[in-house]
Amino acid sequence: MSDQYTRLTRRLADADPDIAALIEAEGRRQHDKIRLIASENYVSQAVLDATGTVLTNKYSEGYAGRRYYEGQQIIDQIEEIAVARAKALFGVEHANVQPYSGSPANLAVYLAFMQPGDTVLGMSLPMGGHLTHGAKVSATGKWFNAVHYGVRRDTGRIDFDEVREVALRERPKLIVAGGTAIPRTVDFAAFAQIATEVGAILFADIAHIAGLVAGGAHPTPVGHAEVVSTTTHKTLRGPRGAMLMSTADRAKALDKAVFPGLQGGPHNHTTAAIAVALREAAQPDFGTYAHQIVANAKALAAAMTERGFDLVSGGTDNHLILVDLTGKEIGGKPAAKALDAAGIELNFNTVPFDTRKPMDPSGLRIGTAAVTTRGMTEKDMPQIAAWIDEAVTAAREGKEEALDGIAAQVRDFCAAFPIPGWSQD
Protein backbone atom coordinates (compact mmCIF):
# COMPACT_ATOMS: atom_id res chain seq x y z
CA MET A 1 0.00 0.00 0.00
CA SER A 2 1.46 3.36 -0.99
CA ASP A 3 2.27 5.94 1.67
CA GLN A 4 0.06 8.45 -0.13
CA TYR A 5 -2.91 6.06 -0.12
CA THR A 6 -2.38 5.35 3.58
CA ARG A 7 -2.30 9.06 4.41
CA LEU A 8 -5.34 9.76 2.25
CA THR A 9 -7.47 7.04 3.77
CA ARG A 10 -6.40 7.89 7.29
CA ARG A 11 -7.39 11.54 6.86
CA LEU A 12 -10.61 10.67 5.10
CA ALA A 13 -11.53 8.08 7.73
CA ASP A 14 -11.16 10.74 10.42
CA ALA A 15 -13.18 13.35 8.49
CA ASP A 16 -15.92 11.11 7.07
CA PRO A 17 -15.76 7.46 8.09
CA ASP A 18 -18.90 6.57 6.11
CA ILE A 19 -17.46 7.70 2.78
CA ALA A 20 -14.02 6.31 3.64
CA ALA A 21 -15.55 2.90 4.29
CA LEU A 22 -17.43 2.98 0.99
CA ILE A 23 -14.31 3.94 -0.94
CA GLU A 24 -12.44 1.10 0.71
CA ALA A 25 -15.28 -1.26 -0.19
CA GLU A 26 -15.19 -0.07 -3.81
CA GLY A 27 -11.46 -0.67 -3.93
CA ARG A 28 -11.97 -4.22 -2.75
CA ARG A 29 -14.80 -4.74 -5.25
CA GLN A 30 -12.62 -3.53 -8.11
CA HIS A 31 -9.82 -5.79 -6.94
CA ASP A 32 -11.90 -8.93 -6.36
CA LYS A 33 -13.82 -8.88 -9.65
CA ILE A 34 -12.91 -9.52 -13.25
CA ARG A 35 -13.97 -6.19 -14.75
CA LEU A 36 -14.97 -6.53 -18.39
CA ILE A 37 -16.95 -3.32 -18.88
CA ALA A 38 -15.65 -2.00 -22.19
CA SER A 39 -15.72 1.65 -21.09
CA GLU A 40 -13.75 1.14 -17.86
CA ASN A 41 -10.11 0.69 -16.91
CA TYR A 42 -7.66 1.06 -14.04
CA VAL A 43 -5.62 4.27 -14.03
CA SER A 44 -2.07 4.41 -12.73
CA GLN A 45 -1.15 5.60 -9.26
CA ALA A 46 0.32 8.73 -10.90
CA VAL A 47 -3.01 9.56 -12.55
CA LEU A 48 -4.79 8.99 -9.24
CA ASP A 49 -2.28 11.24 -7.51
CA ALA A 50 -2.73 14.06 -10.03
CA THR A 51 -6.52 13.84 -9.71
CA GLY A 52 -6.44 14.30 -5.95
CA THR A 53 -4.42 17.51 -5.73
CA VAL A 54 -4.84 21.16 -4.77
CA LEU A 55 -5.50 21.92 -8.44
CA THR A 56 -9.16 21.27 -7.68
CA ASN A 57 -9.14 24.53 -5.70
CA LYS A 58 -8.54 26.73 -8.74
CA TYR A 59 -11.11 28.22 -11.12
CA SER A 60 -9.82 28.90 -14.64
CA GLU A 61 -12.43 30.13 -17.13
CA GLY A 62 -10.95 30.70 -20.54
CA TYR A 63 -7.80 29.31 -22.14
CA ALA A 64 -4.10 29.58 -21.37
CA GLY A 65 -3.06 33.21 -21.63
CA ARG A 66 -6.70 34.31 -21.96
CA ARG A 67 -8.30 33.72 -18.54
CA TYR A 68 -11.03 35.60 -16.73
CA TYR A 69 -9.57 34.94 -13.26
CA GLU A 70 -6.14 35.90 -11.98
CA GLY A 71 -3.58 33.49 -10.54
CA GLN A 72 -3.30 31.24 -13.60
CA GLN A 73 0.48 31.16 -13.90
CA ILE A 74 0.72 27.49 -12.95
CA ILE A 75 -2.59 26.30 -14.41
CA ASP A 76 -1.70 27.72 -17.83
CA GLN A 77 1.49 25.67 -17.89
CA ILE A 78 -0.35 22.47 -16.94
CA GLU A 79 -2.98 22.93 -19.64
CA GLU A 80 -0.36 23.84 -22.25
CA ILE A 81 1.55 20.65 -21.42
CA ALA A 82 -1.62 18.56 -21.74
CA VAL A 83 -2.47 20.15 -25.10
CA ALA A 84 1.06 19.69 -26.45
CA ARG A 85 1.10 16.04 -25.41
CA ALA A 86 -2.29 15.38 -27.03
CA LYS A 87 -1.14 16.98 -30.28
CA ALA A 88 2.09 15.00 -30.30
CA LEU A 89 0.52 11.65 -29.36
CA PHE A 90 -2.28 11.78 -31.93
CA GLY A 91 -0.51 13.86 -34.58
CA VAL A 92 -3.18 16.58 -34.69
CA GLU A 93 -2.97 20.28 -35.38
CA HIS A 94 -5.22 21.31 -32.50
CA ALA A 95 -6.36 19.86 -29.18
CA ASN A 96 -8.73 21.02 -26.44
CA VAL A 97 -8.44 19.17 -23.12
CA GLN A 98 -11.19 21.01 -21.25
CA PRO A 99 -14.41 19.02 -21.97
CA TYR A 100 -15.79 17.48 -18.81
CA SER A 101 -16.66 14.16 -20.42
CA GLY A 102 -17.51 12.48 -23.70
CA SER A 103 -21.10 13.60 -24.11
CA PRO A 104 -20.32 17.32 -23.48
CA ALA A 105 -17.39 17.03 -25.89
CA ASN A 106 -19.64 15.62 -28.59
CA LEU A 107 -22.27 18.27 -27.92
CA ALA A 108 -19.57 20.91 -28.42
CA VAL A 109 -18.97 19.55 -31.92
CA TYR A 110 -22.64 20.03 -32.76
CA LEU A 111 -22.63 23.52 -31.29
CA ALA A 112 -19.52 24.43 -33.28
CA PHE A 113 -20.71 23.31 -36.70
CA MET A 114 -24.48 22.81 -36.66
CA GLN A 115 -27.67 24.81 -36.28
CA PRO A 116 -30.84 23.39 -34.73
CA GLY A 117 -32.63 21.36 -37.37
CA ASP A 118 -29.50 20.60 -39.41
CA THR A 119 -29.02 17.00 -40.50
CA VAL A 120 -26.51 14.68 -38.84
CA LEU A 121 -25.78 11.11 -39.96
CA GLY A 122 -24.63 8.76 -37.23
CA MET A 123 -24.70 5.11 -36.33
CA SER A 124 -28.02 3.93 -34.94
CA LEU A 125 -27.91 3.35 -31.18
CA PRO A 126 -29.26 -0.24 -31.39
CA MET A 127 -26.69 -1.02 -34.07
CA GLY A 128 -23.73 0.10 -31.95
CA GLY A 129 -23.81 3.91 -31.99
CA HIS A 130 -23.84 6.28 -29.03
CA LEU A 131 -26.62 8.34 -27.50
CA THR A 132 -24.93 11.52 -28.74
CA HIS A 133 -24.91 10.32 -32.34
CA GLY A 134 -28.51 11.42 -32.80
CA ALA A 135 -30.49 9.00 -30.64
CA LYS A 136 -34.06 10.18 -30.14
CA VAL A 137 -33.73 10.28 -26.34
CA SER A 138 -30.63 12.50 -26.58
CA ALA A 139 -30.48 16.25 -27.08
CA THR A 140 -28.68 15.48 -30.33
CA GLY A 141 -31.75 13.65 -31.58
CA LYS A 142 -34.17 16.28 -30.32
CA TRP A 143 -32.38 19.39 -31.59
CA PHE A 144 -31.10 18.08 -34.92
CA ASN A 145 -32.50 16.09 -37.82
CA ALA A 146 -30.78 12.80 -37.06
CA VAL A 147 -30.61 10.08 -39.69
CA HIS A 148 -28.82 6.79 -39.18
CA TYR A 149 -26.88 3.94 -40.69
CA GLY A 150 -26.40 0.44 -39.31
CA VAL A 151 -24.72 -2.88 -39.95
CA ARG A 152 -25.40 -5.68 -42.39
CA ARG A 153 -27.60 -8.43 -41.02
CA ASP A 154 -25.41 -11.13 -42.58
CA THR A 155 -22.03 -9.83 -41.38
CA GLY A 156 -22.71 -7.55 -38.41
CA ARG A 157 -20.37 -4.98 -39.97
CA ILE A 158 -21.03 -1.38 -41.01
CA ASP A 159 -22.93 -1.28 -44.30
CA PHE A 160 -21.10 1.39 -46.32
CA ASP A 161 -23.55 1.03 -49.18
CA GLU A 162 -26.23 2.16 -46.74
CA VAL A 163 -24.03 4.94 -45.34
CA ARG A 164 -23.49 6.34 -48.84
CA GLU A 165 -27.12 5.91 -49.84
CA VAL A 166 -28.43 7.75 -46.78
CA ALA A 167 -25.76 10.45 -47.10
CA LEU A 168 -26.61 11.12 -50.76
CA ARG A 169 -30.32 11.24 -49.97
CA GLU A 170 -30.20 13.32 -46.77
CA ARG A 171 -27.13 15.50 -47.44
CA PRO A 172 -26.03 15.71 -43.79
CA LYS A 173 -23.94 18.59 -42.56
CA LEU A 174 -22.08 16.24 -40.22
CA ILE A 175 -21.26 12.52 -40.44
CA VAL A 176 -20.28 10.68 -37.26
CA ALA A 177 -17.91 7.71 -37.47
CA GLY A 178 -17.49 5.54 -34.41
CA GLY A 179 -19.70 4.17 -31.69
CA THR A 180 -20.02 2.44 -28.37
CA ALA A 181 -20.48 -1.21 -29.36
CA ILE A 182 -18.47 -1.74 -32.55
CA PRO A 183 -16.24 -4.83 -32.34
CA ARG A 184 -14.57 -4.26 -35.71
CA THR A 185 -12.04 -1.81 -37.15
CA VAL A 186 -13.65 1.49 -38.15
CA ASP A 187 -12.82 2.35 -41.76
CA PHE A 188 -12.28 6.08 -41.43
CA ALA A 189 -11.06 6.36 -45.03
CA ALA A 190 -14.36 4.98 -46.33
CA PHE A 191 -16.30 7.46 -44.20
CA ALA A 192 -14.09 10.32 -45.43
CA GLN A 193 -14.76 9.44 -49.04
CA ILE A 194 -18.52 9.61 -48.47
CA ALA A 195 -18.24 12.83 -46.46
CA THR A 196 -16.28 14.46 -49.28
CA GLU A 197 -18.81 13.30 -51.83
CA VAL A 198 -21.73 14.96 -50.01
CA GLY A 199 -19.83 17.97 -48.62
CA ALA A 200 -20.17 16.94 -44.96
CA ILE A 201 -17.79 17.40 -42.04
CA LEU A 202 -16.46 14.04 -40.86
CA PHE A 203 -16.47 13.74 -37.08
CA ALA A 204 -14.73 10.69 -35.57
CA ASP A 205 -15.76 9.63 -32.07
CA ILE A 206 -12.90 7.43 -30.86
CA ALA A 207 -13.84 7.36 -27.18
CA HIS A 208 -13.57 3.57 -27.02
CA ILE A 209 -10.50 3.08 -29.18
CA ALA A 210 -8.34 6.14 -28.39
CA GLY A 211 -5.82 4.06 -26.47
CA LEU A 212 -5.64 1.56 -29.31
CA VAL A 213 -5.08 4.39 -31.78
CA ALA A 214 -2.38 5.93 -29.57
CA GLY A 215 -0.71 2.54 -29.19
CA GLY A 216 -0.83 1.69 -32.88
CA ALA A 217 -3.37 -1.13 -32.47
CA HIS A 218 -6.12 0.58 -34.51
CA PRO A 219 -5.93 2.88 -37.57
CA THR A 220 -6.08 6.58 -36.78
CA PRO A 221 -8.86 8.89 -37.97
CA VAL A 222 -6.35 11.73 -38.26
CA GLY A 223 -5.96 12.69 -41.89
CA HIS A 224 -9.50 11.52 -42.63
CA ALA A 225 -11.70 13.28 -40.05
CA GLU A 226 -11.61 17.03 -39.54
CA VAL A 227 -12.84 16.69 -35.96
CA VAL A 228 -12.06 13.95 -33.43
CA SER A 229 -13.49 13.47 -29.94
CA THR A 230 -12.48 11.05 -27.25
CA THR A 231 -12.96 10.34 -23.62
CA THR A 232 -9.76 9.85 -21.66
CA HIS A 233 -10.84 7.08 -19.29
CA LYS A 234 -11.35 4.00 -21.49
CA THR A 235 -8.53 2.36 -23.44
CA LEU A 236 -6.48 5.58 -23.09
CA ARG A 237 -6.29 4.78 -19.35
CA GLY A 238 -6.64 8.31 -18.01
CA PRO A 239 -9.02 10.15 -15.66
CA ARG A 240 -12.69 10.67 -16.37
CA GLY A 241 -12.50 13.50 -18.88
CA ALA A 242 -12.48 14.17 -22.61
CA MET A 243 -10.60 15.86 -25.43
CA LEU A 244 -11.43 17.39 -28.77
CA MET A 245 -8.91 17.38 -31.61
CA SER A 246 -9.11 18.89 -35.06
CA THR A 247 -7.47 20.44 -38.06
CA ALA A 248 -6.27 24.01 -37.53
CA ASP A 249 -9.14 25.53 -39.49
CA ARG A 250 -11.72 23.94 -37.16
CA ALA A 251 -9.95 24.92 -33.94
CA LYS A 252 -11.52 28.31 -33.24
CA ALA A 253 -15.09 27.09 -33.62
CA LEU A 254 -14.44 24.10 -31.35
CA ASP A 255 -12.79 26.16 -28.62
CA LYS A 256 -15.66 28.68 -28.62
CA ALA A 257 -18.17 25.85 -28.40
CA VAL A 258 -16.47 24.39 -25.31
CA PHE A 259 -15.98 27.78 -23.64
CA PRO A 260 -18.05 29.87 -23.39
CA GLY A 261 -20.55 27.81 -25.37
CA LEU A 262 -21.10 24.92 -22.98
CA GLN A 263 -18.79 25.17 -19.97
CA GLY A 264 -17.32 27.49 -17.42
CA GLY A 265 -13.98 26.70 -15.86
CA PRO A 266 -12.24 23.41 -16.65
CA HIS A 267 -11.49 20.84 -13.96
CA ASN A 268 -7.81 21.57 -13.47
CA HIS A 269 -7.05 18.44 -11.44
CA THR A 270 -8.47 16.40 -14.33
CA THR A 271 -6.41 18.36 -16.86
CA ALA A 272 -3.26 17.49 -14.92
CA ALA A 273 -4.26 13.83 -14.77
CA ILE A 274 -4.95 13.84 -18.53
CA ALA A 275 -1.44 15.24 -19.04
CA VAL A 276 0.01 12.41 -16.95
CA ALA A 277 -1.99 9.79 -18.85
CA LEU A 278 -0.88 11.22 -22.20
CA ARG A 279 2.75 11.05 -21.11
CA GLU A 280 2.23 7.41 -20.12
CA ALA A 281 0.58 6.69 -23.48
CA ALA A 282 3.62 8.09 -25.29
CA GLN A 283 5.92 5.48 -23.75
CA PRO A 284 6.91 2.36 -25.75
CA ASP A 285 5.29 -0.02 -23.27
CA PHE A 286 1.90 1.56 -23.93
CA GLY A 287 2.02 0.24 -27.48
CA THR A 288 2.67 -3.22 -26.07
CA TYR A 289 -0.31 -2.75 -23.77
CA ALA A 290 -2.61 -1.63 -26.60
CA HIS A 291 -1.75 -4.64 -28.73
CA GLN A 292 -2.21 -6.93 -25.70
CA ILE A 293 -5.74 -5.57 -25.25
CA VAL A 294 -6.58 -6.71 -28.78
CA ALA A 295 -4.81 -10.05 -28.35
CA ASN A 296 -6.78 -10.69 -25.17
CA ALA A 297 -10.07 -9.75 -26.82
CA LYS A 298 -9.39 -12.10 -29.73
CA ALA A 299 -8.45 -14.92 -27.36
CA LEU A 300 -11.55 -14.37 -25.22
CA ALA A 301 -13.75 -14.20 -28.32
CA ALA A 302 -12.32 -17.48 -29.60
CA ALA A 303 -12.81 -19.18 -26.24
CA MET A 304 -16.41 -18.00 -26.03
CA THR A 305 -17.13 -19.12 -29.58
CA GLU A 306 -15.85 -22.59 -28.64
CA ARG A 307 -18.39 -22.59 -25.83
CA GLY A 308 -21.27 -21.87 -28.17
CA PHE A 309 -21.65 -18.12 -27.72
CA ASP A 310 -22.83 -16.18 -30.76
CA LEU A 311 -20.63 -13.12 -31.29
CA VAL A 312 -21.86 -10.19 -33.37
CA SER A 313 -19.74 -10.04 -36.56
CA GLY A 314 -18.19 -13.34 -35.54
CA GLY A 315 -15.43 -11.89 -33.38
CA THR A 316 -13.46 -8.71 -32.75
CA ASP A 317 -10.66 -6.54 -34.12
CA ASN A 318 -10.32 -4.35 -31.04
CA HIS A 319 -11.02 -4.40 -27.29
CA LEU A 320 -14.74 -5.09 -27.54
CA ILE A 321 -16.88 -8.22 -27.88
CA LEU A 322 -20.64 -8.08 -28.44
CA VAL A 323 -22.45 -11.28 -27.52
CA ASP A 324 -25.94 -12.28 -28.72
CA LEU A 325 -27.45 -14.57 -26.07
CA THR A 326 -30.53 -15.52 -28.08
CA GLY A 327 -29.16 -18.99 -28.66
CA LYS A 328 -28.43 -19.39 -24.94
CA GLU A 329 -32.13 -18.82 -24.17
CA ILE A 330 -31.51 -16.06 -21.64
CA GLY A 331 -31.73 -12.27 -21.83
CA GLY A 332 -28.77 -9.98 -21.45
CA LYS A 333 -29.98 -8.37 -18.23
CA PRO A 334 -30.46 -11.53 -16.14
CA ALA A 335 -27.18 -12.86 -17.53
CA ALA A 336 -25.32 -9.67 -16.56
CA LYS A 337 -26.85 -9.72 -13.06
CA ALA A 338 -25.82 -13.33 -12.59
CA LEU A 339 -22.30 -12.65 -13.83
CA ASP A 340 -21.96 -9.75 -11.42
CA ALA A 341 -22.91 -12.07 -8.58
CA ALA A 342 -20.30 -14.49 -9.91
CA GLY A 343 -17.57 -11.82 -9.75
CA ILE A 344 -17.53 -10.93 -13.45
CA GLU A 345 -18.58 -7.37 -14.21
CA LEU A 346 -19.90 -6.40 -17.67
CA ASN A 347 -23.06 -4.83 -19.06
CA PHE A 348 -26.17 -5.97 -20.87
CA ASN A 349 -26.44 -4.42 -24.31
CA THR A 350 -28.64 -4.36 -27.37
CA VAL A 351 -27.43 -6.25 -30.41
CA PRO A 352 -28.14 -5.36 -34.05
CA PHE A 353 -31.73 -6.16 -35.06
CA ASP A 354 -32.58 -6.93 -31.42
CA THR A 355 -36.18 -8.01 -30.85
CA ARG A 356 -36.06 -7.35 -27.10
CA LYS A 357 -36.47 -4.04 -25.28
CA PRO A 358 -33.40 -1.82 -24.56
CA MET A 359 -33.67 -2.35 -20.79
CA ASP A 360 -33.95 -6.10 -21.30
CA PRO A 361 -31.93 -6.73 -24.46
CA SER A 362 -30.46 -9.86 -25.99
CA GLY A 363 -26.79 -9.08 -25.60
CA LEU A 364 -23.74 -8.57 -23.44
CA ARG A 365 -20.91 -6.13 -24.10
CA ILE A 366 -17.42 -7.19 -23.02
CA GLY A 367 -14.11 -5.30 -23.06
CA THR A 368 -10.57 -6.35 -22.21
CA ALA A 369 -8.83 -3.05 -21.38
CA ALA A 370 -9.10 -3.34 -17.59
CA VAL A 371 -8.05 -6.99 -17.30
CA THR A 372 -5.09 -6.24 -19.58
CA THR A 373 -4.00 -3.41 -17.29
CA ARG A 374 -3.97 -5.91 -14.43
CA GLY A 375 -1.57 -8.13 -16.36
CA MET A 376 -3.90 -10.85 -17.64
CA THR A 377 -2.94 -12.32 -21.00
CA GLU A 378 -4.26 -14.69 -23.66
CA LYS A 379 -3.60 -17.72 -21.46
CA ASP A 380 -6.11 -16.41 -18.91
CA MET A 381 -8.95 -15.83 -21.36
CA PRO A 382 -10.18 -19.46 -21.67
CA GLN A 383 -10.68 -19.60 -17.91
CA ILE A 384 -12.63 -16.33 -17.97
CA ALA A 385 -14.76 -17.71 -20.81
CA ALA A 386 -15.39 -20.85 -18.78
CA TRP A 387 -16.59 -18.85 -15.79
CA ILE A 388 -18.85 -16.73 -18.03
CA ASP A 389 -20.32 -19.92 -19.50
CA GLU A 390 -20.86 -21.48 -16.07
CA ALA A 391 -22.56 -18.36 -14.71
CA VAL A 392 -24.84 -17.91 -17.73
CA THR A 393 -25.82 -21.59 -17.56
CA ALA A 394 -26.48 -21.33 -13.83
CA ALA A 395 -28.66 -18.26 -14.37
CA ARG A 396 -30.64 -19.95 -17.13
CA GLU A 397 -31.21 -23.04 -14.99
CA GLY A 398 -32.03 -21.08 -11.84
CA LYS A 399 -29.03 -22.45 -9.92
CA GLU A 400 -28.09 -19.24 -8.16
CA GLU A 401 -26.11 -21.07 -5.48
CA ALA A 402 -23.49 -21.89 -8.13
CA LEU A 403 -22.70 -18.20 -8.57
CA ASP A 404 -21.15 -17.89 -5.11
CA GLY A 405 -18.74 -20.70 -5.91
CA ILE A 406 -17.66 -19.02 -9.13
CA ALA A 407 -17.19 -15.71 -7.29
CA ALA A 408 -14.89 -17.39 -4.77
CA GLN A 409 -12.76 -18.82 -7.60
CA VAL A 410 -12.65 -15.41 -9.27
CA ARG A 411 -11.49 -13.75 -6.03
CA ASP A 412 -8.67 -16.24 -5.66
CA PHE A 413 -7.70 -15.73 -9.30
CA CYS A 414 -7.70 -11.92 -9.03
CA ALA A 415 -5.43 -11.97 -5.98
CA ALA A 416 -2.49 -12.54 -8.34
CA PHE A 417 -3.24 -9.34 -10.27
CA PRO A 418 -2.95 -6.22 -8.04
CA ILE A 419 -4.59 -2.93 -9.03
CA PRO A 420 -3.13 0.58 -8.76
CA GLY A 421 -4.33 2.66 -5.84
CA TRP A 422 -5.60 -0.13 -3.59
CA SER A 423 -4.04 -3.00 -1.70
CA GLN A 424 -5.67 -6.02 -0.10
CA ASP A 425 -3.20 -5.56 2.77
UniProtKB/TrEMBL annotation:
What the entry lists under Pfam families is as follows:
SHMT (PF00464)
Q: Which reaction does it catalyse?
A: (6R)-5,10-methylene-5,6,7,8-tetrahydrofolate + glycine + H2O = (6S)-5,6,7,8-tetrahydrofolate + L-serine
A GO molecular function annotation here is:
protein homodimerization activity
Q: Which GO terms describe its biological process?
A: glycine biosynthetic process from serine; methylation; tetrahydrofolate interconversion
Q: What is its EC number?
A: 2.1.2.1
Q: Which SUPFAM superfamilies match?
A: PLP-dependent transferases
Q: Which residues carry this modification: N6-(pyridoxal phosphate)lysine?
A: 234
Q: Which cofactor does it need?
A: pyridoxal 5'-phosphate
Q: Where along this sequence does the record place binding of (6S)-5,6,7,8-tetrahydrofolate?
A: 125, 129-131
The Serine hydroxymethyltransferase-like domain covers 12-388
> Which keywords belong to this entry?
Amino-acid biosynthesis, Cytoplasm, Methyltransferase, One-carbon metabolism, Pyridoxal phosphate, Transferase
Q: Which domain of life is it from?
A: Bacteria
Q: Pathway involvement?
A: Amino-acid biosynthesis; glycine biosynthesis; glycine from L-serine: step 1/1; One-carbon metabolism; tetrahydrofolate interconversion
Q: What is its main location?
A: cytoplasm
Cellular component GO terms held in the UniProt record: cytosol
Has the keyword Glycosyltransferase been applied to this entry? no
Annotated site location: Plays an important role in substrate specificity: 233
Methyltransferase in keyword set: yes
Could you tell me where this protein is found in the cell?
Cytoplasm
What do we know about how this protein assembles, alone or with others? Homodimer.
Family assignment?
Belongs to the SHMT family.
Describe the task this protein carries out.
Answer: Catalyzes the reversible interconversion of serine and glycine with tetrahydrofolate (THF) serving as the one-carbon carrier. This reaction serves as the major source of one-carbon groups required for the biosynthesis of purines, thymidylate, methionine, and other important biomolecules. Also exhibits THF-independent aldolase activity toward beta-hydroxyamino acids, producing glycine and aldehydes, via a retro-aldol mechanism. Thus, is able to catalyze the cleavage of L-allo-threonine.
The protein's name is Serine hydroxymethyltransferase
Source organism (scientific name): Stackebrandtia albiflava
